[in-house]
Amino acid sequence: MLLERKVAVIHGGGGAIGGAVARAFAREGAKVFLAGRTLAKVEAVARDITRAGGRAEAAQVDGFDERAVNGYLTDVVAKTGRLDITLNAVGLFHVQGTPFAELSLEDFIYPLAIYTRTNFLTAKAAARHMVKQGSGVVLTLSTPGSRMSGVGFLGYGVTCGAIETFTRILAGELGQSGVRAVCLRSDAIPEALATSHARRVFQGFAERAGVKVEDMLAERARVGTLLQRFPTLAQAANFAAFVASDGAGAMTGAIANLTCGSVVD
Fold it and tell me: Residue 264 falls within a domain, yes or no?
């Protein structure tokens, strides 16, 4: 198994992507600690994992609270003796679909402030332990909004660009201590619409176009990606498991393109 004897912490582990990655990590042998602001959601994922024969624990942790994040990781390391992987999959609703001329400063700043805050706090808390042990992997998430240009996603596009830059520079900060940092850039995942904030985010675009969210995404996938489809949760999660493993030990400071070709490198 790719992650046998590894210890992984997933912030936002009750969400669509966080939960999918948690299940993939557990299938590959990791002991998974799921943190989230809504306890019921992370507990549900933990139950799924244990029923399938994996190892998982859930805890209510606010990924925007520095003291809570630090305390939680200290408790995890005290219990397990190590921390090998951390993923920030925290997601919150933010405004998209609003053209620049109508976009308020508050709606522009909000995603940038919240996403950079939680990624900084969770990465720093994990790095304290990883640097001491001389190994570890910090995973972040972004979208092709970091590379694309268009109407209606200025705030979140800038946010994703910031997360990718954060990951590249973090790799330089931590590399000499044997710690890797990789950003997973995925595109829209239709499966996530039912269980995440994604539907509300895309609704802003769909309403202005006068179409359903599903129809809007289907058309965008058809004409806007090389594979004429979007990635699946399983594809994103399985790649996360690989990149967190020792098999990807030469990869750091990288932005992994999982967009099905909506952007190319």
Answer: no
